[in-house]
Design brief:
The chain crosses the membrane at residues 37-63, 75-99. This protein is an all-alpha fold. The protein has six helices and no strands. The chain has helices at residues 2-5, 20-23, 30-64, 71-99, 112-145, 157-165.
Length: 166
Amino acid sequence: MEYFTNRNARNATSNFSLSSDLTSDPLISENAKLNRFLLIVVVSLVIYVLGLLFNGTLLLVFAKNPTLRTPFNVYIINLFLGNLGIILFQFPLTVCHIASGLPGRLKWLHNDHTCSLFLWANQVMPACVTGCHELIALTRLWSVFFPRALPQPPLTLPGVFISLLM
């Protein structure tokens, strides 16, 4: 674990770095390197704001309209919650990690606990979203192979709780 939290080294979350390719080329000027990093940060902020806006709006629609709370839509709600988790936890730390690769700033900028959160978010959050996509695909396959299934009753609170535990 010390390998991942050593403050004197870069945050060693993987064997590659998105910023190392930009800073190691001697033919690229320092100004061009900074422009690339600024572009990464600006595009990341736009994605962050739009992701929060759209996922939050759709979750609000599901929360305010009880007729949308069907068993299948719990998977959709779970997907939106997973996307919000990625946007809130993983995305800002990834942008900070990329921005910390600026020339002369090759250290992880935060403490060990934030590094651990970054490592956790990079592993768990995408796995949650991938699992949610798999569950949605399985329910769609089920509906294709068994189209005469009974209509689904509205979802109850225990059903929502069990689905969120997945």
